[in-house]
Amino acid sequence: MTPFGVNAGILGAVDLAFPYTAALSKTDGKVLSVLAGTTRPLGGREVARLAGVSQNGAWGALRRLVGQGVVIEQPAGGRSMLYTLNRDHIAAEPIIALTRLRSILIERLKEHLAGWEVQPIHASIFGSAARGDGDTESDIDILVIRPRDVEEDDDRWRSQIDSLAGAIHPWTGNHAGIAEISVRDLARLRRERPTVIESVNADGITLLGDEPSRLFRRRR
User: Fold this and answer.
1) Which stretches does DSSP call E strand in the chain?
2) Of the candidates 53, 82, 55, 87, the residue with the CA atom closest to the CA atom of residue 70
3) Helices 55-67 and 44-51 meet at what angle, rounded to 10?
4) CB-CB neighbours of 36 under 10 Å
5) Of 101, 181, 177, 179, which is closest to residue 140 (Cα–Cα)?
6) Tens-digit pLDDT string for the chain (220 aa)
7) What phi, psi does 151 have (nearest 5°)?
8) Structural Rg of the chain based on CA atoms
9) What is the helix, strand, coil percentage profile of the chain, to 5?
């Protein structure tokens, strides 16, 4: 037993011959996402609840991850155990990065847009990428609003749009779905409320400019 009440033998070992055995199944990923988000030791039932998985699924994931040394198990009295992410493990840093991929994508998009010579009036990510429920087949949906004095075929503008679309696939493995409109279309879109605008209003995450709720609010 270590001074911190952790059984040293429970830490396990990394499989250096096959390091991908510490990679994430869906349940393992959800469990690790919960543990990566806190330094507080959590019981198995609490991990299951926060991860949105069954207790059996959580127990199975925790046992695998303890065996790989990625998660530390410590006694909590009786037969109860508490679990924490082993942040000293060589896999901890990439695991934490994997659990916050959406945040990293949003940061990259903001940085990319900030470097545009012709700044958009607004840009936001919406749809499954914004909600966090997409998969490998989902597009990364981006709404970009063009300034009033910039035409759709403006060379500088088109180069920026193409650059954004070209960057998203290497970053994520997903294709970009870019919805591009002019600020001159806002009044019409406020009246007509097409599906894309309703989606942006419902779950859009602003990358640049005003919040969607303000942009697309119906004017009286």
Assistant:
1) 42-43, 71-75, 81-85, 122-126, 140-146, 176-182, 205-208
2) 87
3) 110
4) 18
5) 177
6) 333 333 333 444 433 333 333 457 788 888 998 999 899 999 999 999 999 999 999 999 999 999 999 999 999 888 899 999 999 999 899 888 877 778 888 999 999 999 999 999 999 999 988 887 777 788 899 999 999 999 999 999 999 999 999 999 988 888 899 999 999 999 999 999 999 889 999 999 999 999 988 888 866 5
7) -80, 160
8) 23
9) 50, 15, 35
What fold is seen in the domain 8-99?
Arc Repressor Mutant, subunit A (1.10.10)
The CATH code of the domain at 101-215 is: 3.30.460.10
Helices and strands: H and E segment counts in the chain = 10, 7
List Cβ neighbours of 47 (8 Å cut-off, separation of 6 or more). Answer: 31, 34, 35, 58, 62, 83
DSSP-assigned states of every residue in 175-219: PEEEEEEEGGGHHHHHHH--HHHHHHHHH-EEEESS-HHHHTPPP
- Domain ranges within the chain, ordered by starting residue: 8-99, 101-215
Verdict on whether the full-model pTM lies above 0.85: no
C-beta of residue 105 within 8 angstroms of C-beta of residue 172: yes
Judged by DSSP in three states, 122 sits in strand
Give dist(CA 84, CA 101) in Å, integer.
21
